[in-house]
Protein 1
Amino acid sequence: QVHLVESGGGLVQAGGSMRLSCAASGRAFSDYFMAWFRQAPGKEREFVAYISWTGSSTYYTDSVKGRFTVSRDNPKNTMYLQMSSLKPEDTAVYYCAAGAKTFTSTFRFTGEYDYWGQGTQVTVSS
């Protein structure tokens, strides 16, 4: 089992940058593939970014490609989401998630993940 805690959210102006962190505790962090999801008011939770167990593979939803970068530091048990050129439509609660399978091809779906953090609010003002 792993416990996830997000941090780094807040209020930023459009065009600004922000870095989110997801700290993990419990079972070995490198045993999990990881992802960021977000949920805006009145909308379903949506996939943002995925990173594989070692960090060698990453994937992004189209709307954040070129603006967001996901990374992980396994010795520090932490995953990051560096966000730049932020837009008002990026406003949401951002969640980190961990998946325990040894293989995944459906990492864009919430059902693929076993553990979730409590979320951190990101608000981008226009």
Protein 2
Amino acid sequence: QVQLVESGGGLVQAGGSLRLSCAASGRTLRQYAMGWFRPAPAKEREFVAAIQWSGSITSHADSVKGRFTISRDNAKNTVYLQMNSLKPEDTAVYYCAAVLKLYSNISESDTDFGSWGQGTQVTVSS
């Protein structure tokens, strides 16, 4: 089982930027497709972004498209979420998650992901 640890959250003003990191240990990250999720009203976890194991395919939620970018560095066993033009409604705990590429090439469904980090808080002030 891969262990995931998020970092990079914090307090930022609206319009600002943050870069979240998700560091993996225990297994090599290239075995996994990765995703970022956040809680949302009426949902346990809302899809934010996902990336295929090599990084050649990505997906972003409509609510963050053009503002957030997911990327990965398999040599560093790390996945990133660059967050620009932040809005107060982006305030949430952000979780990274992993699914073995054997099971899914890329996924937007939280139920597909078997490993989760503890989350990092992002707060955007207006």
Protein 3
Amino acid sequence: QVQLVESGGGVVQAGGSLRLSCSASEGDFTPYSIGWFRQAPGKDREFVTAISWSGYRAKYADSLARRLIISKDNNKNLVSLQIWSLTPADTGVYSCAAGTRYRDDPGRRPDDYDLWGQGTQVTVSS
């Protein structure tokens, strides 16, 4: 079974950028669509972006679409998320998730995914 590991979080100043990675420490996540979600303290988990198993189809949260891009490299078992023009409102735990039910049309809901990583903390300072 695929084990997901997120990396790339940290503290960044407002206006800066980050590159988050989701990798598979075990298994092959080629067959999986991958989603990114974030959760700020005291708030519900929020959809950020998702990509199909092939990497050819991506979806973005409307509010974030202009500030991020997702990519998937099945040869490296790696999904990358680049986000720029960060603000304190982007602070939260960013988690990646994998699923096979919507391989070609990745979902926007947490329930669309079966496997989750532990998350990586992103803190944007003003």
Protein 4
Amino acid sequence: QVQLVESGGGLVQAGGSLRLSCAASRRTFSTSVMGWFRQAPGKEREFVAAITWSGGTTYYADSVKVRFTVSSDNTKNTANLQMNSLKPEDTAVYYCAAARPIRYTGTFSPGSFESWGQGTQVTVSS
């Protein structure tokens, strides 16, 4: 099992920025895709962004395109999520997750990801 540890959450005003990081204990076939999900109170966990370790292909939910950027640092086994122009509706617990190679169908399902971090709270005030 790969361990994932997120960091970087916090409280920010609308229009501000935050950067989340996810450190993986190791890179394996099971971490081919690194994803970010979020879950707001009373809502289902939803896909935000993802990146492949090899090739660096990126994927985004429509709600965060242009505003969020996902990246990876292969030398440090970390995946990052730069969040700009934050809105109150971005408030949620953000989770990092890892998956084996999976097909992108316009979104990624949380059930396709095998390893999860503990989550980090992001709160955007209006």
